[in-house]
Structure formats: structure tokens, C-alpha cells
Amino acid sequence: xxxxxxxxxxxxxxxxxxxxxxxxxxxxxxxxxxxxxxxxxxxxxxxxxxxxxxxxxxxxxxxxxxxxxxxxxxxxxxxxxxxxxxxxxxxxxxxxxxxxxxxxxxxxxxxxxxxxxxxxxxxxxxxxxxxxxxxxxxxxxxxxxxxxxxxxxxxxxxxxxxxxxxxxxxxxxxxxxxxxxxxxxxxxxxxxxxxxxxxxxxxxxxxxxxxxxxxxxxxxxxxxxxxxx
Length: 229
Hints:
Helices cover 9% and strands 59% of the residues. By secondary structure, it is mostly beta strands. Strand 4 and strand 5 form a beta hairpin. It is elongated. The protein starts with a strand and ends with a strand. The mean pLDDT is 94.
């Protein structure tokens, strides 16, 4: 039975936690682990809101196996993981002039930008070693990842007017003065001048993987052959 905890901190509210606890013997093994990383961010918003992130990673792993005297080694390993993240990150940059004045500032129009992610993984692995140099692994797995990035995309400079992309505005702020002023925090005299969109997407992968490994070591030449499906 063992465990460990690592803690560290730094500038801009940077905090790290890495800890695990586990137990093992000839017939089983168990470990639980977490890694957590947070920071307030080094950029600044006019209203003082955070510009950093919060990441949390959890893992649980459990193994059962035959004992050291078994004629044929076999094992069954289960793994489950969960990861989440919140990042106050934005697509909105700065004009060249504002960047040269203060590269760490962020415009008020980016204060609602937020990316959230979530990932879950499950796997079950069966291993058998019928011969000393031959091993067969069969793994069933499922991974799911979802992400939503809620961020400023376009600006409407006047009621009923056209929508302008943030890259166009910052490339030539003198040509889009009203829209540029809105990015910096000027109050509009009409509703909803800032257009925020959610880039919401989900990915999933699942399946079975069969992997056979054969190893042979000679005095001068060694072989390692893998066959997978």
C-alpha cells in the first residue's frame, strides 16, 4: 500500500495537485489518481474577471491476475477516467496599437467567453500469456469527449446594421470605429450588439482491439512481432 501527494503553487494563482494511492500484491492491483491544475490567468479584463482555467483529471485502475505459480498467466484490467476543464479563453485578440500598449489586456467584449470540456473513458482488458514469449491482449474501450466554446464571433455596430467579424475589425479598426469601440466596452444604445456563438460538439469512439505480441531474443538478433485487429 502506497500513496503520494504533490502540491505546488506559483504566480497568477497557479495551483497544481497530483496525488495517487494504490495497493498491490501477487493477485491484484488497485490505484486511484488525480491531477488538478488551476490558474487565474495572466491577462486582464476591465471588470477584473478571471482569464485562467481549471482542469481536473481523475483515474481509477483495477487489475486481477493469476498468481506467480500459475501455468498460464492471465489478467483482467479495468480502467475508468474522467477529465473536465473550464477555460476563460477567447478568440478575440487585440489591435496592433493596443497590443503594443499592453499585450496582456483583453477587451471587455470577451468577458463572457468560456470553453468547457468533458471526457470520459472506460476500458476492460484481458491478457493471456500461453507461452513465455507469446502474449495476447483483448481490449474493449469507449471514449467520449464533449466541448462547448461560448465565444464572441461578430459585432453589429448599429441597430439593423451589418455584422462584422472580429478579425476584420481588429485588422483595420479605423475602418470599423463603432464596432471597435464596442469591443473595448462602449455602451450601445440598442440591444444585442455583440454576437456570441457556441461551438458545441461531441466525439465518441468505441470498439474492440486484439493485439498479439511475440518476442524472441537471440545472442545477436532479437524479434518483436505484433499482430493487431
